Fold these 2 entries.
Entry 1:
Amino acid sequence: MEELTIKKARQILGTDAKQVSDEELKQDIEIAILFKDLFFNNYIKNRKRASTDRPNVP
Amino acid sequence: MEKNVIIYTRVSDPSQIDNNSLGTQEQTCRKFAESKGWRVVRIFREEGVSAKFVHTRPQLRELITFATKKQNNISFVLVYKFDRFSRNLEDGLIAISLLAKYKVSVISTTETTDESPMGTAMRNIMMTLGQLDNELKGERVKDNMQAVFKKGLWPFKCPIGYKRQFKTKEENKGLPVVKDPSMAPIITQMFKNASTGIYNKTQLAKMMNLDNFGDHYITKADHKIVHNILSKTFYYGRMYAKKWDEYAVGVHEPLIDEQTWQKAYHLLVLKKKNYRFHDTDLYPLKGALKCESCGHPMTTSPSKGMNELFYYYECKNKDCSCNGVRINVDKAHEQFAKILSQIKPKQRVIKLFEHMVFSEWDQIIEETKRGIKQIESQIAKQKEELKSIRKATDSGIYTVEQAKEEALKVNKEIDLLSIEKSDIKIEKYDAIITKEFIEKFLNNLDLLWDVLDLPKRQALLNKVFMGTILCSENKQIRTDQLSPSFELIEALGAEKGENVPSPRIELGFKV
């Protein structure tokens, strides 16, 4: 996936990004990436596993 | 004068040896020789060998030696198709030019080529196409194997102690490897013995042989086999693919737990004699939790009492005024969970998160569509193959029986591809699932924390609290390092009309 730049993040957030510094936005992006990874790697994967009844792995 | 010729036939898959592919190749070449009035003096059959390299094909090497001997007086080497001779242009040309020096030409019996410049160019193109086909197939196989690996299935040879559930590839498709009832107990016992630290690898191998390891494996156990088994994380459920340097969580049943594996691995592979297993999972705050008085990271230690172990975070700085404050891990984690339950990411983080999820989802959908198109083109190619079999039958190259056999193979391939295609599902992104995740976990970080493994917990800790949690002298966990991307949940509670206690003073937030 193409990297989300601060400029792009400002476009996405619109007025929500007003008075938010670049540094803060950078942190927002990093956290959003972490959550996105957790969403795909843990949440979606686990949902699939539950539905297909795969064995549990410690 | 009657010319002497030799025939070269080859199949790359051992499973093709017993069907009549080699026979068909030979018959076609024989018919061709008969029609020209040539005498077949010898046949070279290469069984189960790829045409990628010349040096890996003993029969081809023997053929070259035979054909280049003057007394054999060979004029032609007959092949069914050029891709039987070589699927590597460079290697193929070297072999052809070597034969040409001795006035031996390679002739494809089903492809029209001659010794003219145009014929030579056509031959080279056919070999290039063979090479291209090989390389594309190789890429496809690699991609498929990687996809299977990421799904938690083991695409390589079964590790000792495991076996495939069924005999054929088709039947095993999508299924994890299972424990081999005769070998698995021996491997499990070996790990248990290894984790005691009493035995070396040779002694472990001897014990395995006493358990009849050699009866179920190609050789008896030795220190090398033991070393290899001990090095594989596969046995506790984590798979590692060396060729891609990738890890994945396997869906197979582990033979041992991670703790036993770690202990055995450290003692015998890394040879750390004083290794004591330290379960880092028990201390997720390790590194981030600091003593409020001196700022030093708190160490972790188990303490024995009442026949069980108790785990603590502890300040071991001798110069610290806290006099070695010590907090039980359960109590520390309980307080930490309270802090997590009182914060949530700001709305702008949620907005960016949603954008990223939907973009990635779009990409996944596009990739899936591409995969489907690729399979469809393979199916079309197979259908073309069916047509060419029909043509070959009409022109007498195939007998009806042979054509049926060949068509059956192609139809089977088409069926497999169709199954593969139907297995791929385009999962449209679902705003409800995303919302569910946000409400369930992002607005309840304590719940998210509960379901994460150690590395992800540490990543979250670093992002939310800049990696710093403090423990006061009176054993209170607090933090003053909240990331500006998060906010207190108070306002949300107030909106909902719920009675949320203020954590600010008690837990020491400075937002």
Entry 2:
Amino acid sequence: MIKKVLTFYLCGRFLGIDVTLVKEINRNVDFSYVPGSQEHIVGLLNMRGQVVTLFNLAKLLELDEEIEQRALTCIILKTPKDPNQVGFLIDRPGDVIEIDKEACELPPANVGALECEFINCIVKLKDELLMIIDPKKIFVDQRNIDI
Amino acid sequence: MLEDDDFIQSFVEEAKVHVETVETELLQLDMSNLNAESINNIFRAVHSIKGTSGFLDLTKIVELSHAMENIFGEIRSGKMTINEGMIDSLLEANDCMKTMVDDVANSETVDISLLLEKLSIILSNKGLQEKKVVIAVEVPIKTLKSETIDFTQSKKQKICDCNDRGQILYKLKKNLNKDLISNETTLAQFLIQISSIGTLIECNVDVDEFSNREEDSQEDVIMEFIFTSVLDCDMLALMMNSEAEDIHPLYLTKDTEISIETLAKNEAESLIESQIGNQASGISDTDVVQIIKQIPIEEHEKEVHTGKNQAIATEDSIRVNVMLLNDLLNLASEMVLARNQLLRTMESYRKGIPGIDTIFQNIDHITTNLQEKIMQTRMQPIANVFNKFPRIIRELSKKMGKDINLEMIGTEVELDKSIIEALGDPMTHLVRNAVDHGLEMPADREKLGKSRTGTVKLKAYHEGGYVNIDVIDDGKGIDVEVLKKKALEKGFVGKSDLVAMGEQDVLKLLFKPGFSTAEKVTDISGRGVGMDVVKTNIEKLGGTIEIFTVPHAGTTFRLLLPLTLAIIPSLIVEAETLKFALPQVNLQEIVRIKANDPTRKIEYINNSEVLRLRGRFLPIIHLAEVLRLNRTYIDNITGERKPENRKMLFNNRRVNSDVLVPKDQDMNKGNDQRKPGMSNIVRILVIKIGSRRLGLAVDAIHGSEEILVKTLPVYVKECKCYSGVTILGDGKTSMILDPSGIIEKANLHFYDSQDENQISKEVEERESIREHQNILLFKCSGPETLALDMSMVSRVEEIKVEEIEKIGDKEYIKFRGNALRVIRPEDFLPISKETNQKKKLFVIIPKLVNHPMGILIEKIQDTVQTGINIRQDDNITAKGLIGSTILGNKIVLLVNVYELFEIANPEQYKVIPIIKKGEKLKILLVEDTPFFQKLEKSYLEEAGYTVLLAQDGKEAMEILEIEKVDAVVSDINMPIMNGLELVRRIRANASIAMLPVIAITSLTGESQIKEGLAAGFDSYEFKLDRQKLLEILDQAIHKRRITI
């Protein structure tokens, strides 16, 4: 089984997301900060009249933010039938690559619990490892965590 | 079984409409005068449900609808009369239908046997009305014959195929002998003829008619040909040598599988449908699914009923998914933004491109229109809410044994869909309340001289950009005294507060959670239980609720609702470079505080900032602080934003900074030039939510905008400070502030300090209510400035000196063809007189006087609007003057027109004291404006009355408690307690209820007069016609005396 994955870079990590879940990639987004919101929420973005909540993925994954470049590129996810649109900031997008299901594996035991929770699987590429994130777990479930 | 979801979905949507139709029509049925049209509507609705559900194999729905259809079939054919009991059963059945339709998937599991039984009992009782059947059948067959024809499966297919190819189904009648044989055409030849122009489906001989005939009849055999053709009626008639009226097009309904029917003509309808009704009973039993119903079409109606025209007359509305509409709305507003951007960007090129301006204008216009239209798509008639009330009222009236008549007015008024949806529960509550607590039992009503039937009126109408919905009952009204007692008992208010509370304030207690005046809380409603919920729900919609009540006359609950939820006017404010929208509903005023302004400054109580606003403390909170934003300031030298570390930002604003100098005064003096946020000016938004007021300090105000409200993403809900999101003109999102959330977040504790509030409220009210008078300032020949209230001036004419003619010692001018006497005030008033050689003069024509005279003056100075304080220590008194006042540092003499005229023309203006000698009548004059108070008092006293004075309703009530008076003359618009409330209280108080009370007011609106009379005034007079006032006062006193 071959799957298409959109790769991107965040805080020096090489991450991927199932391309069928992505609606669009926006560069130079102009979002507004929401005072009083939780710290992993960057702000709200106007995407052609729809309000998109932008997340700080690095914070959610507890990545080291020091390395983050403040480039304002974001990935907006497809959320059919859900009025709450979500997106997250990335450092820069990579490519859309095809991966074989064979090459996927669940995170090994020594990977932290938090990361495990948000990571769908890890792809063993030829010369590096690609972590496929699970946006559903990260963003949709976020509502429950918030409450 | 349920194969095609799309079909099911559209069935459900359709069926819901039908079920609703059945319900409304059933409830509207007037037993005494059956309307054939409504029975038909019901029948059709049930029939359609049956048809479609049969197609979808929903057997239970079919069974139920079939049973209902049978009954309506009987009713409409007149074989059965409908009665109350039947309606109940039918409603029950309809409810069951609703449940099944709402949950189609489980409709098969619903037990309907009991209902079916009930319905079949109803049906079997029809025998009692058998007589009517005969009458129904006796209608002339020639004009109104109808029949049904069963087709076999293959023929049905054939018809459908032909129809798809655009052919129309026809039925042709021929007399075998007369039309065919006498024309030497054999039947076979005729059939070939038909086949040449279309497809022959069937050929019948009307056996029924044949067998009915007398044996010796020489009549012809009627042949019926059913065929399809693309030709129209007239052409066919020509081709086949027949009369056009013999050829009838049969209209195919969209459910071809179920029935093919021509549209029934109105007058024929009920009869034909009866046959369908009969026929229908056979349908579900057999496999025959086609019915053709047909009526002959009279010649003059032919054009209307051709197949083609039928097809055009389709529905004029379509169902659209709400999501789609919302998306459209989004896109439209986005379009507006895009347009703005386009216009902005192209601004500099505009001159370079010829003709672009018109294009821009066009785009501008279209976009605005587009947005408006799309907004309209969300509008729905209020009937959607109102329509369930006939049912509710019916049930309530049964349950409680009250006769209730429901009136609904303005059902066509439209409101945004979201409001319509949210309105159902609060409205239901109010209606139930009106029935349960408002209306009395029929017997009690009779005792009070009211009709046994109580009325509940629902009235929707537009007023000032809002939609008002009134829920009116003509019941016993709300007893304010009982309310007060209850409020005391429950500890909602203190005794001292209660005294100061006006009627409206007391009524508002109803909305307090846990307040109930009902002796017993019934299962229908307990007034108060849930009233708070009603209020919150209405307020959530951006609306407000008002109560009006008159003891024994009824209560009105008025809901004021915005037309649409989606767009609200709001103020765009800024705090620390972030923009926020504040809904203007909550905004009372904006206070601008300049640094070093000694009159307006922010003061400190411990560490809290307060502002003295009109003698009251206003707590000040900073938006940035509530939102936990880091404070910044703009460095004067570098122009950069730097973090602000000081806490008491306003301390450097103190004028007397010696004793109470805060510690950080020691800071570098240069720092005092720091600007919080943007500038040296603090802007405070005074926000009011209920009784709570606070000042919200912001850095900048960007003006007001109509914003489109978008729901808050779930992810930021927990911030509490926001009620939604919007997109501003620059395309960025902005949070909509929620003032109550801010209060919560800022930890503000409001005390219900009624006393303090009340006092300042009174002051405020006095300020605002004081009637401002329009005063005409003028001069006669001397230097004195005279003044006349504009309400007494009809017009001012400019005249030339030559126009004045002297007759004897009196002066006249020609005015509108009549001689009008003019007088010079200086001749009669103690003012100086000079002879000026002025060419032009002015004549003031007063109004509200019986024998008008013009007042000749030399100069019009000004007209001013002001509240007049007549000087108390007035020593400028004379007949003809009310008194003096000071306007703009000058003494102004107020002229009393009546007295002036009386001096000038004693015969006609002499006041004849109305009071007979020896009789003493005491009048209580309630008036807050000193000018009118004085004037009215003088009028009354001249007429011989003794006058007592009160400043407002409250004072008046106090006087009434200790003094016996013969009549009350009251203003309407007064602080603390207005005239309406005063009269209501008088009428509610048994000991003084019969007192004559007259309103004298400057409120002249038609509705206000009505309201005034409804409140209990004997009559309603405008300010200020002396003669009229005295007349009506006299009348009122006499009338009351007679009734006593």
